[in-house]
Amino acid sequence: MDTIYKCFPGGRHKVLTMSYDDGKPEDERLVSIFRQNGIKGTFHLNAGLYDDQHGRLPLAQVRELYKGMEIACHTYTHPTIERCPLSQVIAQTLEDRKALEAIAGYTVRGMSYPNGSYTKEIEEAMRMCGIEYARTVISTHDFAMPDNFMEWKATCHHNQNLLEDGKRFLALQKTQYLYMMYVWGHSYEFTNQDNWELIEEFCRMMGGHEEIWYATNIEIVDYLKAWNQLQFSADGSFCHNPTAIELWVEVNREHFSIQPGSTQRLHPNAG
């Protein structure tokens, strides 16, 4: 019997993603560092706090700054939502989505819980608001794929053994597993702690590896949801991709690209 494995794009088995909150001016420097090293990130913004009083970037700069990255929600004004009426949680989320979508020009479907605050009821409310994933402030220091995207736990905050975790991630060799490294934080912390060299060294170390897929949060979610829609024949000899995304599978250590809307033979050397 053939062994069929899920793969990331290009047949890869590792993914690196970054996640930064609040939209402070330091994001400009951070985005530049990411781009220099081919790394992608998600930036969670509070659309209701974009004025001089709150020290955020001007909204007029947001679309251009984060081009190629992901813009995602962080609620409209950053309340600790576990203490709020559920109706306000919904309003905070939808107002943030509407304002950010007007700037980004695409559907905003990600969230990081402000102050890491959430409940099971809030998770369900997020789904009703069109949110497809939400990041917590919990760090695992491992590289497992999430079992619940509405309680997405990071590998680490950048102040928590970042370089050590990065080295362990690079050293992983077993291709029978999928691995994800997820780093989160706030860009202004690099200024406050005078340690920009930390993220610069990390990105130089992590960039440019053929076995790593560099992705935003929503790209990971969309890819995995699409992959789970692949339709495999009973004998595993072919599959159909009903989605609009190119998907990858591994069969007996050989990689196959399944184009959108196509049916692909999966036996090595098959036509």
Describe the overall structure.
The protein is α/β, with parallel strands linked by helices and 271 residues long. It folds into 2 domains: 14-217, TIM Barrel, CATH 3.20.20.370; 229-265, no CATH class. It is built from 8 helices and 15 strands. Strands 2, 3, 4, 8, 9 and 10 form a 6-stranded parallel beta sheet that branches. Helix 3 (86-104) packs across helix 4 (120-128) and helix 5 runs parallel beside helix 7 (196-206). The longest helix has 19 residues, at 86-104. The mean pLDDT is 95.
SSE diagram, text form:
Blueprint: E1 4-7, E2 14-21, H1 27-36, E3 41-45, H2 59-65, E4 70-73, H3 86-104, E5 110-112, H4 120-128, E6 133-139, E7 152-154, E8 156-157, H5 162-171, E9 179-185, H6 188-192, H7 196-206, E10 212-214, H8 217-227, E11 231-232, E12 238-240, E13 247-251, E14 254-258, E15 263-265
Parallel strand pairs: 2-3, 2-9, 2-10, 3-4, 5-6, 6-7, 8-9
Antiparallel strand pairs: 1-13, 11-12, 12-15, 13-14
CATH class division of the largest domain: Alpha Beta
Share of helical residues: 25-40%
Order of helices and strands: EEHEHEHEHEEEHEHHEHEEEEE
Q: Count the strands? A: 15
Please identify, by name, the CATH architecture of the largest domain: Alpha-Beta Barrel
Strand content: 15-25%
**Overall mean confidence score, pLDDT:** 95
Any idea of the CATH topology of the largest domain? TIM Barrel
Q: Based on helices, strands and strand pairing, what is the structural class?
A: alpha/beta
Give the N-to-C terminal Cα separation.
19 Å
